[in-house]
Amino acid sequence: MDAPFENVTETWCLALGAILFERKGLKPDEFYSEEFKEETRSQCKHSLECDWAIHSREQLLQRLDQLMVAGDNRSFTELRSFLSTLPESDPSAYNDSLGNTHESYVQYQIVQTYDHKLPGAGIAAWDWGRYVFLCREGALAGYLTEAEARSLMRRVAHMAQHSYSDWLEYGIGFLVGEQFSVKKLSGRHADERLDTAEALLWNESSLWRRLDWDTRLD
């Protein structure tokens, strides 16, 4: 097995998936140093199967490619572009015409609400955070080598760093993307997911507070 993740660049890469790691009870900056065990492999395989319907290296690579090429940000960007073509008074009227039972209603609402609060990258953070999480789980499950996981995560890390201005903007993109994906606008649903991001943003010992967004990446 390759050497474990151990430098700042690799830890920064893992931090992109910090919200998901934290929800799983895993500390991103400790996760990389976990000794490889058969139990770990079994747990990660089970997680990939149950949460992602991934049962093989081929399926993992397909899912990673999907997130990169056709993730939720693609749909978000398309809706964003469509709404931008409507006269200023029309977007809300168009959304109301769908009726709140229409499957696109919530997604249009989310795009309208956050259109001017997000950079051009939109909700790419949601796709990239999941990408990094899958790379790490895939490596621990034995579907990727550590070298492969490093290379894939570095690619995403450089894209993220040039697309968002700081961890706060990245975190907003991630959470909005999650709302967009599950098509829910309820305050309770949002609050449950906000807690983890807030801890990463404001806890002095958190990874996001200890790693500068503009860290030079290898």
Explain this structure to me?
With about 220 residues, the chain is mainly α. It has one domain. It has helices at about 10-15, 20-25, 30, 40-50, 55-70, 70-85, 90-100, 105-115, 125-140, 145-165, 165-180, 185-200, 205-210. The longest helix has 18 residues, at about 125-140. Mean pLDDT is about 85; it is low at about 1-5.
Write a concise keyword list for the protein shown above.
mainly alpha, globular, 13 helices, disordered N terminus, 218 residues
Number of domains: 1
Rounded average pLDDT: 85
- How many β-strand stretches? 0
Q: In percent, how helical is the residue content?
A: 55-70%
How many helical elements?
A: 13
Low-confidence stretches: 1-5
Query: Cα-atom Rg, whole angstroms?
Result: 18 Å
Task: Give the SSE map.
Layout: H1 8-15, H2 18-23, H3 28-31, H4 38-52, H5 57-70, H6 72-84, H7 90-98, H8 105-114, H9 124-141, H10 146-163, H11 167-182, H12 187-202, H13 207-210
Task: Put the structure in a nutshell.
The chain is mainly alpha-helical and 218 residues long. The chain contains 13 helices and no strands. 69% of the residues lie in helices and 0% in strands.
